[in-house]
Amino acid sequence: MNFELKTLDLHAAATHKTDALIILVSAKDKPSKSVLSQLIVNARKSGDLDDSPARLLTVWQPQGVNASRVVLVSSADGSAAQVRKAVTAAVNAVKAAKPAHLTVCLTDATDQRLQAAAQAVADASYVYTATKPSAKASTLKRVVLALPTAEKTKAAKAAFEWAKAQVAGVSLAKEWGNRPANHATPTHLAKVAQELGKKAGIKCQVLGPKDIEKLGMGSFAAVARGSVEPLRFIVLQYTGAAKTEAPTVLVGKGITFDTGGISLKPGPGMDEMKFDMCGAASVLGTFEALSHLKPAINVVGLIPTCENMPDGTALKPGDVITSMSGQTIEVLNTDAEGRLILCDALTYAARFKPRAVIDIATLTGACVISLGHIRSGLFSPSDELANALFAAGEAALDPCWRLPLDEEYAEGLKSNFADVANVAGRDGGSITAAKFLQRFAKDYPWAHLDIAGSAWKSGAAKGATGRPVGLLLQYLLADQNKTTRRAKA
Ligand code: BES
Ligand code: MN
Ligand code: ZN
Q1: For residues 375 and 365, what is the distance between their CA atoms, to the nearest angstrom?
Q2: Does ligand 1 lie within 6 Å of residue 424's CB atom?
């Protein structure tokens, strides 16, 4: 899908040739004599259009208009969230006509509104085809995002590049999230990373079982033991700033399938545990976006990836394992495997002397109980980092919500047989999981995003969302601005 940024006021839009002309309307629009403006005025008069969220009217080949169909859609208060809603509704309304060329006319666009519009077009037209030959791939080839004046178009250039990069990153994360576990093994994910490593500014290194043993990652290795698929530890490095500039490290949970191991999960819905690598996919997606934007920052991506399977060699409840940090762990439940692979990656992260480490994981069912599918869970002992990530989530329409990390929550992780147990009972499960991780993230500012509820949708719309690539990109680019300001000062 190719995006273009263009200047089109409603007068020019009438002669613009496209399969579907989507016009966002709001109460603030100033009517003019142009055909399209008159169409809007009359539709409002007749009650076929108003300013309620995503109210929509499709008109087929109106006179004096070159487009095959016009979709008038209300952007309500004009906020980015309403722009996303309106564009989603409009694309869904014309999808059946299989448009190849689509145009979205925005009246004015802040960075966020432009990004919301681009992301909404991409999301609404996404079709999964990798293992479904009968699915018809999206016909959409060209998407024009239009602003009414040349000044507005000029001012939107940077936001437009950002929007395209975000769309590419989210698409990659969605695609790999959606692929079933037999088509998305640790080896496959490593290949995706190696492809990213060929792009300018990105280096990729992939470690295997022997390297992991040498590094002393006994916790990660223990989870992988029950599977015939070999584990991979992916190290991605994006260098856009001076080598002396401390990197932000992103750590993504890459369990390509989570059966629970010997603490086997119940059967119904277990297929959804193919999504247990969505944290990893979001790191890959963020690197894809960085390769487009080439910002002046340094970012490291770490992905421990393996399957969690039951087997004669698998980890057993009660086993005590030794993590890379030297801390021993009593594994009371083999289904709490995410924290076991992440803890060694968090220890490894320290070698980059990072300015911050953010791990992203489909970590706990408890987080889904707390926050549902709207907001990701956010945990950090640092107010500064937590506030920055929260703000990034708001701006990118990829929201999260901070949960506490009081020391008292760690009480239940005490073990008689090891330095720490890997579970602490059901209560406050997403917090106790975060408390476990925190023990391994003492040497740098750290945050944890639990995306168990936000990374994919269930039911008829079953599929990966590509979250939180938008949030991460927003955070990293806001951070870039801080870095440049520091350099200039
Ligand atoms: N990958 C799951 C978490 C999960 C479950 C995400 C359901 C989304 C939906 C994780 O590995 C897991 O199994 N966690 C356990 C932890 C428990 C054993 C303490 C859970 O949440 O049940
Ligand atoms: Mn599990
Ligand atoms: Zn898991």
Answers
A1: 14
A2: no
